[in-house]
Amino acid sequence: MLFVCLGNICRSPAAEMIFNALLAERGLQGRIRCDSCGVAAYHVGQKPDSRMLAALKRAGIPYNGHRGRQFSPADFDAFDLIIPQDTTNREDILCQARKSEDAAKVVPMSRWFPADTGLDEVPDPYYGGPHGFDLVVELLRAACTALCEDLAARGR
Ligand code: 4NP
């Protein structure tokens, strides 16, 4: 699965690392290919934002060495689930779909939010303080847990 955000330095690499940590907890590491990318190219080749790495560390999630990369339509062939973090990311991915099968692979992260969040996207923490990064980590941990359970229920 491929998590997508704008810059690939905050939300989507966090989702990737949290999802991989959940797989490891379940003894399923390596069973599902999990990656992340951004719709924009600003941060290609860069490490995740240090504020996000600090929030992940506070939550016990280690940095896996990910470097920023940009989404490409070839990702529609490489992944069977493409998960944008917000509405704009979703639109930016959908407009690159080459056929209906591509578009059908795009499912928003909010699909797996707990019902009581009142949110319909993962908020962009980039211009805020450290608390925003902790909130994103907490939201992604809940959503990735639900995603793991969803995949297990579907026998993946
Ligand atoms: P991300 O956060 O999309 O979660 O990686 C952002 C990263 C960079 C920028 C905005 C949001 N930026 O404007 O450079």
Descriptive overview:
By secondary structure, this protein is mainly alpha-helical. The protein is 42% helix and 7% strand. The chain is built from six helices and three strands, in the order βαβααβααα. A three-stranded parallel β-sheet has the order 2-1-3. β1, α1 (11-25) and β2 (35-38) form a beta-alpha-beta unit. α2 crosses α6. The model has no long low-confidence stretch (mean pLDDT 96). Bound molecules: 4-nitrophenyl phosphate (4NP). Residues 5-11, 38, 42, 124, 126 line the site of 4-nitrophenyl phosphate.
| Morphology call | globular
Q: Report the total helices.
A: 6
Small ligands present: 4-nitrophenyl phosphate
The arrangement of helices and strands along the chain is EHEHHEHHH
Give the overall pLDDT as a whole number: 96
Distance between the termini: 12 Å
Structural class: mainly alpha
The stretches of 5 or more residues where confidence is low (pLDDT under 50) are none
How many beta-strand elements? 3
Strand content: 5-15%
* Whole-angstrom Rg: 14 Å
Percentage of helical residues? 40-55%
Largest sheet properties? 3 strands, parallel
- For the biggest β-sheet, the strand order reads 2-1-3
